[in-house]
Design goal:
Blueprint: E1 3-7, E2 14-18, E3 23-28, H1 35-50, E4 59-65, H2 69-86, E5 90-94, H3 95-102, E6 111-119, E7 122-131, E8 134-145, H4 146-152, E9 159-162, H5 165-168, H6 170-176, E10 181-183, H7 193-205, H8 224-237
Parallel strand pairs: 1-4, 4-5, 6-9, 9-10
Antiparallel strand pairs: 1-2, 2-3, 6-7, 7-8
């Protein structure tokens, strides 16, 4: 079983191939938000590096969101196209859960809190504990103001913060929480296809897959353009 994994919800697109047990090859782009140009060359690179052909792929895992709306759309549409072309299933993976899994080897027993910039003074965030049975969500994944989310995790004495919101809101985090937290090192702070592949292989083994037609983005809120259109329509109806 070979799983192709795509991660496009963050600033840098990445792609990985797993044989269901370990990562055979992975690559991450160097140019911010250049997913559209780089994604297919990255797919070809990991296939060549792992020594398999596209016809060997058993399933395609994709980080479905939340994150960059444009990045999510590119990842979902690419996964759908590959799935349809090869007649293989898709595996939808939460970007927050995959990011939490990436931090599991570094969190030292802490509650892992991935936080992604959602703009408009919000973050997409959740809190997770990772044990023998896998990932357990302890604070619901949702859009929050930073203050709302920090209040949600106030009762946890040891938290491990991940995601690009750590960069953007560092000073606010320091003001809201005096201690009992660690920010992930930049080497593991952001989304990556390696853990999308890992989660994808686990889901594939359990039969937790969807068809390309059923694969849907997880925006967590409506896109900005759609929101503005609805506001304009509402104003015009008055």
């Amino acid at each position: 079983m070979y799983i192709l994994a795509i991660e496009t919800t963050g600033a840098f697109a990445s792609v990985a191939v797993s044989d269901g047990k370990e990562i055979l090859a992975c690559v991450e782009g160097n140019d911010k938000y250049s997913h559209l140009q780089n994604l297919m060359p990255q797919v070809q690179y990991v296939l060549d590096k792992s020594g398999i052909s596209v016809s060997d792929i058993s399933g395609i895992a994709v980080s479905a969101g939340p994150g960059s709306f444009t990045g999510i759309r590119i990842g979902i549409s690419s996964a759908r196209a590959i799935s349809q072309m090869l007649d293989i299933p898709c595996i939808s993976v939460s970007s927050l859960e995959a990011l939490a899994l990436r931090g599991s080897d570094h969190a030292k027993g802490a509650v892992i809190c991935p936080m992604l910039d959602a703009r408009r003074s919000q973050v997409y965030a959740g809190a997770y504990e990772i044990g023998e049975d896998g990932i357990e969500q302890v604070v619901e994944a949702a859009p929050y103001t930073l203050e709302e989310f920090m209040a949600k995790i106030e009762g946890y004495s040891n938290v491990y913060l991940m995601g690009d919101a750590c960069d953007i809101y560092r000073e606010k985090i320091e003001a809201l929480r005096s201690g009992g937290y660690e920010m992930a090192d930049a080497s593991v702070r952001y989304q990556h296809a390696e853990t999308v592949a890992q989660m994808g292989a686990e889901k594939m083994a359990c039969g937790d897959t969807v068809s390309y037609e059923e694969l849907m983005p997880e925006y967590m809120r409506i896109p900005e353009a759609e929101r503005k259109l609805k506001e304009k329509q509402a104003a015009g109806a008055k």
